[in-house]
Structures
1.
Amino acid sequence: MKHYKIALIKGDGIGPEIIDEAVKVLDAVSSKEKFEITYNDYLMGGIAIDVKGEPLPDETISGCLESDAVLFGAIGGEKWDKLPRDKRPESGLLRLRKSLGVFANLRPTTVFDELINASTLKPEIVKGVDLLVVRELIGGIYFGQPRANDGNKAYNTMVYEKDEVVRIARVAFEAAQKRSKKVCSVDKSNVLEVSQLWRDTVTEVAKEYPDVALSHMYIDNASMQLIRNPKQFDVILTGNLFGDILSDEASMVSGSIGLLPSASIGGKVGLFEPIHGSAPDIAKQGIANPIATILSAAMMLRFVLDETSAANRIEAAVKEVLRGGYRTKDISQFDAKEVCSTSEIGSIIADRVSKI
Ligand code: IPM
Ligand code: MN
């Protein structure tokens, strides 16, 4: 029997609750598909600051590096916002991404027909949207040197080396080959040198993928086009900061940030997390939506463990449960037949997974 070692980072706020539900679903699918998972918990974020005095303890990095994949909930909260930047929960996550080498962040946005009214956009604009943001995750302005803030003057550096652009571009083109064969690369090359290198490099890499159509868009225009006509996009390829912004925007096309998963891959060990944050205001009330985390676990099965049928099972179960009208509170106003708690919906999905 195949056996996988998964590192769990529950983190802060609603993190522990949503990870518990993903584990429930993983246990159901693994017993059905005949593989075994052992889980090890590691600390990161605010809880790690409280317990260990730092947002990313060494044993978390080494534990993750010894695992087959990392499933992560969420971090952060007001309590730690006053700390210096490099001591905050977020810096733990950035350092973990860098330590794992996960340069490719895949953020799919799909619209569930059952929740078509959850979007603030008109149903005819969002129906059928299926796009993937491929965001470069361990370079660009997030990590560029020099950076400083002396109270009078502050700066950051947006820097990309050609190799970094080549490798993320390949991820986007390869993803497009399995989808609708279109890549739209987003930059600001009318103003920034770093974006000119980005654009020239992506154009060069595109020659290796003649079956994929490449277009380019400036970030300002892309932000507008994403709301005007999201269906024009298949794969959006972009850098770290633009990708951070565009993927939040894309999530609102689907209407429910609580449903969208992500995968960070390309490094030593893959990292899988919901795209939403730690939502401390609703923590420990049993109302958080665990579906984004459950779907992140499905991406983990698909992308690194190669358990495609298990991943399909989870995705199908989530669709069925939504079709059945089961809703957590955040989406309860959209055709709910039954409003469920975090753990109720997790159990319903786990139950469906075994029956599909
Ligand atoms: C995300 C988050 C992070 C980012 C923060 C928490 C550092 O917004 O995963 O999109 O900016 O990458
Ligand atoms: Mn973000």
Note: Residues 120-254 form a domain with the Isopropylmalate Dehydrogenase fold (CATH 3.40.718.10).
2.
Amino acid sequence: MTLMLKTNRFLLISVLVGLVVVSSLLLLYRSMTTRALIEQEERANTNISYILANMILPRVENLLDQTESLDKIDFELVDRLVYQAVMNTSVTKVKIMNRSGMVLYSSDPFQVGESRYTNESFHSAIGGVPASSLSVRERFKAIHSELRDRHIIATHIPIRSENSQRINGVFEIYSDVTHLFRTSMLIQLQIGIAVALCLLLIYLVLFKMARRADSVVNAQNAERLAAAERERYQAYHDQLTGLPNRISFVERLDEALNRARREDFMVGVMYLDIDRFKMINDSFGHDEGDELLRLATRRLSHVIRESDLLFRMGGDEFTVIVERGFLPGDVAHLAQRILQAMREPIEIKGHFFMVTVSIGMSIYPKDHASVEQLVKNAEAAMYRSKQKGRNQYCFYTPEMNTQASERLVMESALQQAIGNDEFVLHYQPRVDSQTSDIVGAEALLRWDRPEHGMILPGEFIPILEDRELIVDVGEWVLRTAARQVREWLDMGLDPKRVSVNVSSRQFRKRNFINLVKSAIEEAGIPAGYIELELTESLLLDNSSHAIEAMRSLKSLGIKLSIDDFGTGYSSLNYLKLLPIDYLKIDRSFISDITSNARDVAIVNTITTLAEELGIEVVAEGVETRGQWEFLRGKYCQELQGYFFSRPVEASEIAQLLHRPRLASGQ
Ligand code: C2E
Ligand code: MG
Ligand code: MG
């Protein structure tokens, strides 16, 4: 029951009780005033009766002794005396009775001779006690007139003889109290109305107060409920994207698994991670990072079906529970749709971001029956997708857990790799697009891991990046490449330019420029032999600082290029600001260049812009003659790819440099 209802009930009861009390008080008051009126009139009537007795009895001898022969009474005289006595009083009628109740005189002559012996008031009076009664008369025969609708008080008064206390007769005096009675009634009515109004007023005030209190309490209740609801919502939802969070995920997956157990169907768990999100967040700032997460969430929400549930697990990680449909086929389709939806660049504050996701999936009951393990397995599969080059999906396989523990082993092995001298540099020639002459080489890191053989950077660079080891390894690469140039020069060969890949973490270090300087000086080579391959993300990280650093490097005579161009995050306009010499078009645009119109358009845009800006273009990943021929017709000065040479050991480069023209065959 609401407070208002309770209050109303209470008020209603109090008002009813109030009304009963007031009515009883009014009734009491009424009977008291009536009694007082009767008593007052009785006194007045008694006085009048004494006056009458004094006036009449001495003049009408033996009046009260009359028993039968009333003829002897001088009615006219009595009438006159009565009239004189009651003139200007409220007395309207007078009767005189002897001890036996016979009416000896009445101002209404028709009553003379009647017997009042059985009358109660008469009996009381004859017993010595005056008695009065109030009655309402429609018609009343008064002295010399007839009255209508009157309140009459009739008083029986004992009359005693002068010298003895014996009661000789009874006077009955009628007085008209209509006016008094009505006045008293009017006063009662007014008091009643006043009290009722007061009660009503009090009720209204109380009602108003109760309503106000009720609305305050209701508002407080509503606020409390809303706060509780908010708290619940916050506990189960992610603030940034509004998606249900990890807690919701665990609960919902548990429910889904219970249903699946009962009804014997499968459940798919998908684990998504935005590729390189940390870099975007670090480079562009948290506001942009947040916006990116929101926009990515919106895309994901559009792609998933109504029956699929999307969650944000934290950071850049999302999960989807797929409960309906044909599994595992439907999860794979969903993963494809997600990868597809992410292909369009996301625009934030004028920057276009190519956002990709890596997806891992596990299926109940095939991959496990518990919530924790299904998630772990999906996550392991997601890591596998990352390892395989990101922007793809993987189903969980039991080997993945072994791979995860292998990663841990690899991490500790990598920590010792520098000290153990396990890293090697291979070099991939870069050739002139027109003449096929070698114009330089890219230094590419390899890890000659004991008992594992040569490991490619894709497998271990992400771990080096994660563990910050990349800074030390990067320094080793730079110094080694510079020393290699020295070695070739000492052999009388001209390597022209050796490019070294620089990770953003390395570039961000304060002493990076000094490191480059010291590497060149230590090797004793002109700075122009070294080119640094930077990534787009690094350029936009605290851009003014980055541009400053690039200028300093350029002033040393170092060449600068942007690696993997087109896959990153910069808007093309940004290029105008950068003091760079080369753009290296990512090989993903080159691989289908002879068949994919979209790739042709991208390459055309990049080359046109580079030409305008006077920046040279290098195409990576040239594998076929067709690609080569296509590219040499464009504004593209250098080519690099398996078509000309795979990355090879330094000694092989020395041989190649003896006959510097590559390709035209292979
Ligand atoms: P990247 O800088 O874009 O290097 C080019 C990659 O493309 C090399 O892979 C090279 O072997 C490969 N490649 C060249 N031509 C072709 C081709 O025709 N077809 C195909 N399919 N691939 C081709 P690699 O050596 O596995 O290096 C992978 C990535 O690892 C590099 O990409 C670079 O980003 C990174 N990396 C390599 N060495 C270093 C290093 O010393 N420091 C840092 N920070 N990153 C490095
Ligand atoms: Mg490179
Ligand atoms: Mg590249």
Note: The two ends are 91 Å apart (CA to CA).
3.
Amino acid sequence: MRWRDHYTKGTLIFGHRGASAYAPMNTIPAFELAYQQGADGIELDVHLSKDGQLIVLHDFTVDHTTNGTGMANTMTLAELKQLDAGYKFGAQFQGTRIPTLDEVFEAVGGKLLINVEIKSITEDTDGVEQVTADCIRRHGLMSTVIVSSFNPLALQRFRSILPQVAIGYLYAPDYTFYPEVMDTLPHEALHPYHESIDLALVEKARQAEQVINTWTVNDPAQAVSLRAMGVQGIITDKPDVIRQALA
Ligand code: G3P
Ligand code: MG
């Protein structure tokens, strides 16, 4: 199945870090809630722990979302699992843990499309692409996962390891790395910041047979207008609001 065949049912809604307006970002409760709110998929961010385990976390440090401090890649999975990734969002989420990608795939991999964003800002790799590919393959989710990154070098490495999985190029006007790499790297999707979209981009993507998934769109009117322009995927913190707007 080609990635773009998922869109034949219409515009797809992806919960950004889950339904992160209502539950702690990048946690199982946020992903389950996105499903309950009618999302077609979720977006999440991955890093490697010190002991090479794939964890779902946005920042490079644990400071913002947990009760710990420090770089995630200097901590083992066992250490990361000690942290509370829920209580800062709300008392009812106290005790929520940072999930591994394996745990997310087990929980929702059978019912949601999953956009795995590889967080990487270096030219060299710590091996995250290989571990991500192994995880996708282990769960048999090659046709329902798309891997995105702001780092084309990470996409290039991932593509060479697991070419049958779709890739999406993430970018924003003031945030691009080695964009020339994408000129020679076939990719199934563009993941532009929503303000980077105009009709010319939509037409260019159409000719290249690429879909456009844009982020982060929480305003219902904006979602309607992006759909009218031909954007096929909306990544949002509020899947319920966008589902209603696009009904
Ligand atoms: O993948 C879309 C979006 O998540 C990219 O930015 O910082 O929210 O990971 P960020
Ligand atoms: Mg992200």
Note: Residues 43, 45, 117 surround magnesium ion (ligand 2) (CB under 6 Å).
4.
Amino acid sequence: MRWLRFRQGENEYTAYLDGEFARAVTGDIYSGRWHDTGRTFHLAEVEFLTPCRPGKIICVGLNYRDHAAEFKMEVPAQPVLFLKPPSSLLPHGGAIVYPDGVRRLDYEAELAVVIGKKARHVSGEQAREVVFGYTCANDITARDLQKIDQQWTRAKSFDTFCPLGPWIATGLDDSDLPVSLLLNGEIRQSSRTAQLAFDVPFLVSFISSVMTLEPGDVILTGTPSGVGPLQKGDTVTVSIGGIGELSNTVI
Ligand code: MG
């Protein structure tokens, strides 16, 4: 299934996709205790919200071998984790705000994992049981600030720096999904999740050994090679096979 959240008028809805329509539900999609309301909305008439509301967004740096190579770095022996704040979230169709004073703003196409169950110390074998589904993310990065600060909080955390969506796809095999990024319609990144240095089960297990994962939390699994700069006026689209396309403009 494909789960989304959207606004229409004053109201916010959780829904699943049915062709060109969203069918609104009530209840808790993570536990499976939800009910169809019978209300349907054409996708063309809704304003997308981020498909989940994570308490935390855990990100992995340098997790594709080709991306580590383009920065002349080795893939680390263990995953390098950092956080983006929920205030950086931006839905499909929203505008990425190029901050004043930033000189280099980069896109990073990433597979995002959405957690479905509270999880602590899960094994790699148990990891997929706590995954609800998958969506597209763009780990927007102020590359100049990342170099100046030598740690990543400011560079990764501006409002609008975490486009996420358009929906959560469930029931996917995450082991070899095509991940690509189009800048103004031209392909700039193209890889597959089979190229991940640390795969999804390993990451879920590793992160759950550090912190408790909660339903709706999001893991950004890292970006492949081909990262590059954005300019005001650009349209940037993350496309992942089996999920869909996350498209945003830069203002
Ligand atoms: Mg990244």
Note: The pocket of magnesium ion is lined by residues 59, 108, 110, 139, 220, 222-223 (CB under 6 Å).
